Amino acid sequence: MRKRLVALLAGAMALMLVGCGGGDTTVLKDMKVEKYVTLGEYKGVELNVAAATVSEAELSQMVEYIYTSSVTAENGAITNRAAQDGDTVNIDYVGKLDGVAFDGGTASGQNLTLGSDSYIDGFEDGLVGVTPGETVDLNLTFPENYGSTDLAGKAVVFTVTVNYIVPTSAEFTDEVVAGFGISEFTNMAELNQYANDYLLENANYNRDMEIESTLLDTVMNSATFNEIPETVVQKYSDQMTRSIESVAAQYGVDTDTYLSYYFGMDLATYLDTYAEESAKQGIVFQAIANEEGLNLTDEELDAELQTYATNAGYATVEEFLGEEPKENFREFLMFEKVLQFLKDNAVITE
Q1: CA distance 149 to 82
Q2: In whole angstroms, what separates CA 188 from the centre of its chain?
Q3: How confident is residue 18, by pLDDT bands cut at 50, 70 and 90?
Q4: pLDDT digits over 277-287, tens only?
């Protein structure tokens, strides 16, 4: 369901993120959108969504992650005994084939639980009995069916340094937490509260996303559509393309590679799947805005744009807008108002 919400906002968010011009000429507020949609249920939508909660298991896992990620050999780590089976050790290692380091065979600060069978046979067993600070050479052989043909069946040497043994939760102390130098918490009680607050905030965010997605599904499924103008579909297709191109560029890949990884499809298929749906969503939101008086006034739009420009570090709204039409931002902000209206008027039970 989250993809439906993404489809609605992707085109509008492109304008907020990339400002690459183009000047879309189809303005929803100037259209007679009621010609293209008959609204169904959108006020008083009944939803049953579980309350945001944090389980003991989640909390314990988060506290353990924060604590063990923060310990060092000098603060909190175990360094005064040899590693045992079942210990998690922090290691540096270099793997060499015929005396030459091979790709993927080197790591620093890696945590490894001995006995987990995460590494090739003999690697973990070879670290049992090693005391932190010691370096050992492990003469090992990759299995014949190993994924890399360059290493399959080959004899290699791993030079491994055990930096320290990671403490278990039973060994966590206030003194060590105080030594982390993290302002948000200075003892175990504060660390637990910090972890709980973080997880609860994330749970509330996910709950809010579930509410939004379910509301959007309900509103869209209950609406009746006539044929959507191709100009509107093309507008959203163009905006979505700009947004995807910008995000893909940040990852250093082309659009097809990015979409294939995250959505399992190329750009053309993505647009065929979501551009018309996004156009329909825009028309539905505009129809609700018209019905409920949620369109932005010029004064509201100017104030919002000034806020965005200031927060983005621009001296003026004009510099922030560049060649992008102001009206496109009006639509984005209208979408936000309508979505909030839908949530405020929903009947949500837990």
Answers
A1: 35
A2: 28
A3: very low
A4: 999 999 999 99
Tokens of 32: 């007679």
Domain(s) labelled CATH 1.10.3120 in the chain stretch across: 2-39+223-349
66 pairs with which residues across the strands? none
Q: CA–CA distance from 148 to each of 76, 99, 249 (Å)? A: 38, 18, 30
Residue labelled with tokens 């560029």? 249
CATH topology of domain 77-166: Chitinase A; domain 3 (3.10.50)
- Residue 117 identity: D
**DSSP-assigned letter for residue 28:** G
Give strand ranges (E) for 45-171: 46-48, 88-97, 100-113, 135-141, 155-166
Q: How far apart are CA 327 and CA 329, in angstroms?
A: 5
**Side chain identity at 263, as an amino acid letter?**
F
Over residues 190-217, the pLDDT tens digits come to 999 999 999 999 999 999 999 999 999 9
Q: Which residue has the tokens 């807008």?
A: 321
> Tell me, which fold does domain 2-39+223-349 have in CATH?
Trigger factor, domain 2 (1.10.3120)
User: pTM for the full model?
Assistant: 0.77
The Cα 125–Cα 84 span in angstroms is 9
Q: Which residue has the tokens 């102390």?
A: 173
Q: For residue 98, which of 137, 153, 154 has the smallest C-alpha distance?
A: 154
Q: What is the DSSP string of 318-334?
A: HHHHTTS-HHHHHHHHH
Please check whether residue 98 is in contact with residue 157, taking contact to mean a CB–CB distance below 8 angstroms: no
